[in-house]
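In this section we walk through a basic example: taking a raw amino acid sequence and producing a predicted 3D structure, encoded as discrete structure tokens. The instruction is simple. Fold the sequence below.
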Amino acid sequence: MANENVDTLIRITPAKRRPDGLTVTGLTGLGKSTIYRMMAEGKFPKPVQIAGAWAVRWRLSDVRAWMENQMPAGAELF
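The resulting token sequence is shown next.
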């Protein structure tokens, strides 16, 4: 049984070996440069660092919460 306290971490773009996974760019429709610019402006969630200084992933819950905040009132997210 999955631990409900553990959040799914997702990549910004697909991995070359596994291009079918959830990604930040795929979920939001934003480009990588736009996401990093928005992060610098404080308008997009920041990633968490994993396994060293260069590896980062976004919490799926953070990305979904950001997406919900961008939607008009009454609209539903998948």
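Looking at the output, two observations stand out. The longest helix spans residues 60-70. Helices lie at 24-28, 32-40, 60-70. In the next section we compare this with other chains.
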